[in-house]
Amino acid sequence: MAMTRVRPGRALFKTRRPAGVQAPDRDTAVIDWAAYIDGHRACTDTVADAVRLIRDGRLTPDGESAGFVWVGLHEPSATELADLAEVFGLHPLAVEDAIHAHQRPKLERYDDVHFVVMKTVGYVSSGPGGAEVVETGEIMLFCGPDFVVTVRHGAHGELGPVRRDLEKDPARLALGPAAVLHAVADRVVDGYVGVADAVMEDIDEVEEAVFSPERTDESRRIYRLKREVIQLKRAVGPLAGPLRNLSGRRFVPAEIKEYLRDVEDHLTRVREQVESYDELLNPILQAHMTQVTVADNRDMRKISAWGAIFMVPTAIAGIYGMNFDFMPETRWRYGYPMILVVIAMACMSLYRGFRRNGWL
């Protein structure tokens, strides 16, 4: 790939902020940058200086740069990415995807630049109504011969810890941009594992609540969990293909391929775990709906039984309330007490019958 010279004065290449400090007014999307030579960080005042240091510095016997530049961005604007695209020769289609986000996990190649999209997930325990929510974001990587550009969308999946861990291992970082690619993929998959475990705890709680003696309505929570599982599946499932393809790319050193296969193995386990959640939630939902139906039928039986019991005094009172002249019982001295006894015995007989049959 022909190296593009850096033009000074670009909006993206501003003076460095202190490490770990992000300007409150979000004047730039650049979170951190550095040049890495033989696995060691070389700090510069601007991104442009880092690019010059690598491209104008020592070359390998093959004529390639002996190091690389790593630029990290968070939700950049079109202008900021356009600056980087001009410097690193990024394809317009990949740049457009990185700006708008909402992409499926994928791996694409544009000349000697690989564009990787990964979905990130985060578990938030303070969603609407105090509910647990699985949030998704994205991380895009542009991997070239002498640079890595990471573009992050969403509030989670921070890559600062990834950079710090890699800088503690210069030998691994000296393997080039592929080392960054593996570290980011490993971080993303570890996030899947943590969220999947949290969702599993929620499923266990719902299952315990459904089969507890107390009568609770868990249908809402079950449907919400099913929606969160779908979110997880959309993030986890499609990433298997890109990881598998990365293991066969020539720009990935053999040492990194071994690490990528380990990440792929972790991803497979998480994918199987997430897919099993549907198999768990479906019978839980069916059992809950069955319990609701049984409880409703039980309530209807009780209502019907009490209705039948109260129908007896109502019917008798209705008959004697018609005030016919030729009703002998109305002239009888013990007629009123006798009717009360008949009503009480009839109601008691019905009550005992319904109790014996389990209706009351």
Question: How does this structure look, described?
Answer:
Strand 6 and strand 7 form a beta hairpin. With 360 residues, the protein is of the alpha+beta class. 30% of the residues are buried. A 7-stranded mixed β-sheet has the order 2-1-3-7-6-5-4, with helices on both faces. The protein has 2 domains: 30-289, 2-Layer Sandwich (Beta Polymerase, domain 2), CATH 3.30.460.20; 300-357, Up-down Bundle (Methane Monooxygenase Hydroxylase, Chain G, domain 1). It is rod-shaped and about 125 Å long. The chain is built from 10 helices and 7 strands. Its main location: membrane. It comes from Actinomadura chibensis.
CATH architecture of the largest domain: 2-Layer Sandwich
Outline = rod-shaped
Spatial extent as radius of gyration: 35 Å
Name the helix and strand elements from N-terminus to C-terminus, one letter apiece.
EEHEHHEEEEHHHHHHH
Number of domains: 2
Report low-confidence residues grouped into runs of 5 or more. 1-13, 15-26
Strand content: 15-25%
Q: Which structural class should the secondary elements be placed in?
A: alpha+beta
Helix content: 40-55%
Task: Give a short summary of the structure.
The chain is an alpha+beta fold. It has helices spanning about 45-55, 80-90, 90-100, 160-165, 170-175, 175-210, 220-235, 240-245, 255-320, 335-355; strands at about 30-35, 40, 65-75, 105-110, 115-125, 135-145, 145-155.
